[in-house]
Amino acid sequence: MTEKKKKAKKTVGKTEPKEQSAKDPNPDHAVIADYNGYDYKKIFWEDGKRDYEDLCDRLAVRKLLPDAMDDFVDIAGGYGRLTDEYISRAKNSTIFDYSKTELADAKKTYGDRITTKEGDIYNLPFKDETFDGLMMVRATHHFKDMPKVIEELYRVMKPGGVAVIEIASKKTLPKMFRYWFRKSDINPFSKEPSYLKELEMYNYHPKYMEDLFKKQGFKILKVLSVSNFRSPKLKKMFGTKFLGRLEKVAQPTLAPIRFAPSIYYKLEKTPKNA
């Protein structure tokens, strides 16, 4: 991770990140989250006490991934946090990531059971129509050129293949309250992507992403609302086990309103303009 990124991490929970239009801050396709040399598993997940968020992701992935796949790729899969959720469902599993450090950790854990591939999300190192299963979780907040990302995901998938994609949503209740009480200039109801300058992260409106999926040629099969109770106070008060039970019910129930910080989509690759 870059020094700039490390400093941004320290501001979490202490200052309110300034949101801007996604048009201005970075040149196209700039790397804004380099996890090389950074212990993402320990620092973010273990030390950050994100057991609840991890469970929420697992519940969603279990519901949405196909039971059987031939060739599967975990895009931005890092150290393989969610590999246990798909490795038994796929004949061949590949983890793709920008970070050599994260991929090395994945290889240490899973060995020959997985293939790892380093590269650029905007120019995926795979041939057309390679995978019949694909997943991308907790990655969209790093991407400025989302149309290009979705175009690449579509390209590497086989016709009829299924993709599970999670987006970092800008349409959440905390963001609404900040907007209503004039603590943020960003309108969470606007489809325009927003940029959290101090954290170097992008947020996307569900409607913006859904239009993008459809335009590219993806059919939306199912939607889930995920991490609905992502609050330090709630986690401390009720614990992961209890919140997990609520989450299991809330994910499909709250999907129509799309207010959660993570929105999951199950997509099918169809011919463009079908």
Return the average pLDDT rounded to an integer: 88
Largest sheet: 7 strands, mixed
Order of helices and strands: HEHHEEHEEHEHEEHEHE
The radius of gyration computed from the alpha-carbon positions, rounded to a whole number of angstroms, is: 18 Å
- CATH architecture, please? 3-Layer(aba) Sandwich
Class by SSE composition:
alpha/beta
Our count of helices gives 8
The CATH class is Alpha Beta
CATH topology, by name, is Rossmann fold
> What is the number of strand segments?
10
Shape: globular
Quaternary? single chain
Strand content: 15-25%
Helix content estimate: 25-40%
CATH superfamily: Vaccinia Virus protein VP39
Identify low-pLDDT runs.
1-26
Widest sheet: strand order? Answer: 4-3-2-5-6-10-9
Q: Explain this structure to me?
A:
The protein is of the alpha/beta class. It has a single domain, classed as Rossmann fold. It is 34% helix and 23% strand. It has helices spanning 3-10, 40-46, 51-64, 100-110, 146-156, 173-180, 206-216, 232-253, and strands at residues 19-21, 69-75, 90-97, 115-118, 131-136, 157-168, 194-196, 201-203, 218-226, 262-269. Helix 4 (100-110) links the parallel strand 3 and strand 4. The radius of gyration is 18 Å and the shape is globular.
What are the salient characteristics of this protein?
disordered N terminus, Rossmann fold, 274 residues, 7-stranded mixed beta sheet, alpha/beta, 3-stranded antiparallel beta sheet
